[in-house]
Amino acid sequence: MSLFPSVRLRRTRQNEKLRALVRETRLSVEQLIYPLFVAEGIKEPLPIESMPGVNQWPVEALDTVAEQVVQAGIPAVLLFGIPAHKDEVGSEAYAEQGIIQQAIRRLKAIQPELLVITDVCLCEYTSHGHCGVVKNGTVQNDESLVLLARMAVSHAEAGADIVAPSDMMDGRVEALRHALDEHGFSGLPIMAYSVKYASGFYGPFREAAESAPQFGDRRSYQMDPANVREALREVELDVAEGADMIMVKPALAYMDVIRRVRENYDLPLVAYNVSGEYSMVKAAAQNGWIDEKQIVMEIMTGLRRAGADMIITYHALDIARWLRP
């Protein structure tokens, strides 16, 4: 038996105030994290061709973008470093005067309240572009853990607020937790890239971070896009090893995974709206095919609806402007 006409769902859709009053999913600027690429050997911000509106930043110019982020109300940035020198073991990743270590100190000096999150991975620092130590053409898991832990400690010593391992080596969260605790950083949170797929959506990032592998691919350590049960196992291990926050990356094609993780775990959950997702929207908007604001806000709301507590996105500054009263 129909409930119409006594039940009319359109009653609460008549105007914006009514729609806002009954809105189930909220997006706020406090849930956003803005990624920043910091590069050695440049004097001015360098636009990234495949990511319109995104730059590589010299340390000296971080004051400008940090002020924009803070003024927008965005609480955190995620740092990626591009060193001038790369080698087989990514030694600049854990150097005291490495590019990220310099960037952390600069940001904490000029904007002490801004949360600085650092990506912990060797791919941007190695000459071969892989996320760990390579021997005989194979990425070595356990040897890589030693360097990743050293990298995380160096970030903590420079003043990082959160470290975020993205390498996908087995046991990396436990290795970082032990190293951080041993060096007096037991209170420093770990944001684990728990579910990171071997995705085609990373293409523009590899240009931005200059981190494309020089041989092979990363399928031996990043996840098969076809798997979701494996994703839950990855999260289970990271939680057991001491992760404080968990992440799903990419986001847009993996909302079902975000939902499954949300239903099974109560840790803060991060969705990474990655470079390819960003660039597709930008390209379509520049061609006049879509309304950029409407599409971006719909995507972000979808990620929140799927269960994400926080969203890492290159759209963050635009979203903050659109959310402003």
From TrEMBL:
Q: What are the GO cellular component annotations? A: cytosol
* Presence of keyword Nucleus: no
- Positions contributing to Mg(2+) binding: 234
Task: Cite the annotated pathway.
Answer: Porphyrin-containing compound metabolism; protoporphyrin-IX biosynthesis; coproporphyrinogen-III from 5-aminolevulinate: step 1/4
UniProt keyword list: Heme biosynthesis, Lyase, Magnesium, Metal-binding, Porphyrin biosynthesis, Zinc
- Give the positions the UniProt entry annotates as the active site: 196, 249
Highest taxon, organism lineage: Bacteria
Q: Which CDD domains match?
A: ALAD_PBGS
SUPFAM superfamilies in the record: Aldolase
Q: Where does Zn(2+) bind?
A: 121, 123, 131
Q: Which InterPro entries match?
A: ALAD, ALAD_AS, Aldolase_TIM
Q: Which GO terms describe its biological process?
A: protoporphyrinogen IX biosynthetic process
Q: Could you say which EC number(s) this protein's record lists?
A: 4.2.1.24
Q: Where does 5-aminolevulinate 2 bind?
A: 275, 314
Parts forming coiled coils: none
Query: Which Pfam families does its entry note?
Result: ALAD
Q: Which reaction does it catalyse?
A: 2 5-aminolevulinate = porphobilinogen + 2 H2O + H(+)
Q: Which GO terms describe its molecular function?
A: porphobilinogen synthase activity; zinc ion binding
Quaternary structure, per UniProt, is: Homooctamer.
The similarity comment for this entry is:
Belongs to the ALAD family.
* PANTHER family reported in the protein's UniProt record: DELTA-AMINOLEVULINIC ACID DEHYDRATASE
What does this gene product do? Answer: Catalyzes an early step in the biosynthesis of tetrapyrroles. Binds two molecules of 5-aminolevulinate per subunit, each at a distinct site, and catalyzes their condensation to form porphobilinogen.
Q: What is this protein called?
A: Delta-aminolevulinic acid dehydratase
Q: Which organism is it from?
A: Thermosporothrix hazakensis
Query: Could you read off the lineage of the organism from its UniProt record?
Result: Bacteria, Bacillati, Chloroflexota, Ktedonobacteria, Ktedonobacterales
